Amino acid sequence: AMLRLRLLTWDVKDTLLRLRQPVGQSYAAEARAHGLQVQPEALGRSFREGYGAQSRRFPNYGLGQGLSSRQWWLDVVKQSFRLSGVQDEAALTKLAEKLYRDFCSSHNWEVLPGAAETLSRCRQLGFRMGVVSNFDSRLEGILSQCDLRQHFEFVLTSEAAGFAKPDGRIFEQALRLGGVRPEQAAHIGDDYSRDYRAARAAGMHSFLLRAAGQGDGPEVPPEHVLPTLSHLLARIEK
């Protein structure tokens, strides 16, 4: 089937980049550097709890409620440590600011296998490329540090868009930035509802990155599933 695609949009976290180690380990290492002993597993649980609560209370970094994404993240980091028993407010502020900066760098992120090669090949084939990610303004810097920024004409974050996936309006903005109609575009991501289903609801094609053995989850036509990023080329080169 000729898809006649002109634009490919990409999710980032767990599609192109992943954290080098669990958040709890990164946070615990930073705490140790400040003379505080906190268990990584406890911190990981506290982070998930704090992040979840903050996301429900202040969706999309609290932009609609007057927060900045930086303040949103500083609060999440502090709450993660508070829930793990750290009470010293001065230490919490120092830790939060250091970790907020650290997560901008390639020191905490690694490129997923096949990502750089697949992006290069897609560009060689003449596709226009953009990012559509539920991320904050640090994403440009992270992509540059990880040597991926040059593949993309635009990087659209939920912070910049004002809407987070699965809201169709972030995909509409991406289509405007790419200058194409929905049926000329495909989105690639690892999340069934935020990436695969949301892009299709916006009239785009989409592919779901789902490693072999990750069979749990809704049925997706096999030709829309990517066991690895390298499988994309066979799906779109036809």
UniProtKB/TrEMBL annotation:
Family according to the record: Belongs to the HAD-like hydrolase superfamily.
Highest taxon above the source species: Eukaryota
Protein name per the record: Haloacid dehalogenase-like hydrolase domain-containing protein 3
Species in which this protein is naturally found: Oriolus oriolus (Eurasian golden oriole)
InterPro entries: HAD-like_hydrolase_domain, HAD-like_sf, HAD-SF_hydro_IA, HAD-SF_hydro_IA_REG-2-like, HAD-SF_hydro_IA_REG-2-like_cap, HAD_sf
GO CC terms: nucleus
Alphabetized Pfam families for the sequence: Hydrolase
